[in-house]
């Protein structure tokens, strides 16, 4: 299957540059997974598509203020880095712009309390940096770090929390699990009162969010590893839903990737943690998830490929064409889609 099979035209003015004032007032496209039939609703209507006993699974990762701006102490010039993965207490894997300003041995100064030495260049031009700092590293990041908004968002975000889900708690992501940005405390409470179980997994979103598919044949694309964790409580809730014929509703592609990574052939989930580089594309037999809440994704992205595997590529691409025609808002701060 070709990467170009997942291309669609998207006008720039449909790329959402800021979140709506009310999180759950975004539009919701409802798609029948089997027929492709579409409805147009609001996100707060999502509860109508859940039944008592269903399990809603959310990714509780929290975005780090992972973008830092510094100066090369040896060569001069401004440097921007993005923290991707913690290797040990002081060493991180990072993306750097411009790369020529970050060679092994270079010292990047961020302020008088934080600097880092480039240790080595690794795969795909990424770097390993070793930080030196006064006090506590996390406090330095809170002070100096900027939210790592995707490059297609060009407007400044005035409130950092709008790029966090209301249930975020496990810090470690380089990007938000954006399908969850639509939930409000009030909506969550209504979901609980309806008898729907709420379970949490953690997947720290990494470099895959920022890297496009650059190969013609999708089978040649390499996914980067991301850390995930599933508790026994979550595993038990999901297994009970499967046993009783209830729905497992995944919020976001990160949740899908986590659950499908941990799934046994029997369709059972167990408590687990580790690293996943699972790449889901058509055709794929989903073992755990049978309903999906997701945002609208970039053309030719691995996220769009996963959504196409969940339903049907032609149906999904037609739905996206409809979304463009109906002027839905796209990407991180955009509207939502429910496939069930």
Strand percent estimate: 25-35%
Taking all Cα atoms into account, the compactness measure Rg is: 20 Å
| Helix-strand category | alpha/beta
By DSSP (H or I, 4+ residues per run), the number of helices equals 6
Average pLDDT across residues? 95
Tags for this entry?
alpha/beta; 17 strands; QueA-like; 9-stranded mixed beta sheet; Thrombin, subunit H; 2 domains
Can you put this structure into words, describing what you see?
The chain is of the alpha/beta class. It has two domains: 3-63 and 159-339, QueA-like (3-Layer(aba) Sandwich); 67-144, Thrombin, subunit H (Beta Barrel). Helices cover 18% and strands 28% of the residues. It contains six helices and 17 strands. It has helices at 137-144, 185-193, 232-243, 253-262, 302-310, 313-325, and strands at 27-31, 38-42, 55-59, 61-63, 67-72, 78-86, 91-97, 107-111, 114-121, 127-133, 170-173, 197-203, 226-230, 248-251, 272-276, 291-295, 336-339. The strands form three sheets. A nine-stranded mixed sheet has the order 2-1-17-16-14-3-12-13-15, covered by helices on one side. α5 (302-310) packs across α6. The model has no long low-confidence stretch (mean pLDDT 95).
């Amino acid at each position: 299957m070709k990467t170009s099979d997942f291309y669609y035209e998207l006008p720039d003015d449909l790329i959402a540059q800021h979140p709506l004032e009310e999180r759950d007032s975004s539009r919701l496209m409802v798609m029948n997974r089997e027929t492709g039939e579409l409805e147009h609703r609001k996100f707060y209507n999502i509860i109508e598509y859940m039944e008592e006993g269903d399990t809603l699974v959310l990714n509780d990762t929290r975005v780090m203020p992972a973008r830092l701006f510094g100066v090369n102490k040896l060569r001069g010039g401004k440097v921007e880095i993005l923290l991707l993965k913690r290797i040990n207490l002081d060493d991180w894997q990072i993306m750097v712009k411009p790369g020529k300003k970050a060679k092994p041995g270079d010292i990047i100064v961020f302020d008088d309390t934080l600097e880092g030495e480039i240790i080595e260049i690794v795969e795909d031009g990424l770097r390993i940096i070793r930080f030196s700092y006064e006090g506590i590293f996390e406090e330095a990041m809170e002070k100096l770090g900027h939210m790592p908004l995707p490059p297609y968002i060009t407007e400044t975000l005035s409130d950092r929390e709008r790029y966090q889900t209301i249930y975020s708690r496990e810090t470690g992501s380089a990007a938000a699990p954006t399908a969850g940005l639509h939930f409000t405390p009030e909506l969550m409470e209504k979901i609980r009162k309806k008898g729907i179980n709420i379970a949490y997994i953690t997947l720290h979103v990494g470099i895959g969010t920022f890297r496009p598919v650059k190969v013609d044949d999708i089978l040649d694309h390499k996914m980067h590893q991301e850390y995930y964790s599933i508790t026994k409580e979550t595993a038990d809730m999901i297994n009970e839903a499967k046993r009783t014929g209830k729905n497992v509703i995944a919020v976001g592609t990160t949740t899908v990737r986590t659950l499908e990574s941990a799934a046994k052939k029997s369709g059972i989930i167990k408590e687990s943690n580790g690293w996943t580089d699972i790449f889901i594309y058509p055709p794929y037999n989903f073992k755990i998830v049978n309903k999906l809440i997701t945002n609208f994704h970039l053309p030719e992205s691995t996220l769009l490929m996963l959504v196409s595997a969940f339903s049907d590529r032609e149906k999904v691409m037609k739905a996206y064409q409809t979304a463009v025609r109906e002027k839905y808002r796209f990407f991180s701060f955009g509207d939502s889609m429910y496939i069930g």
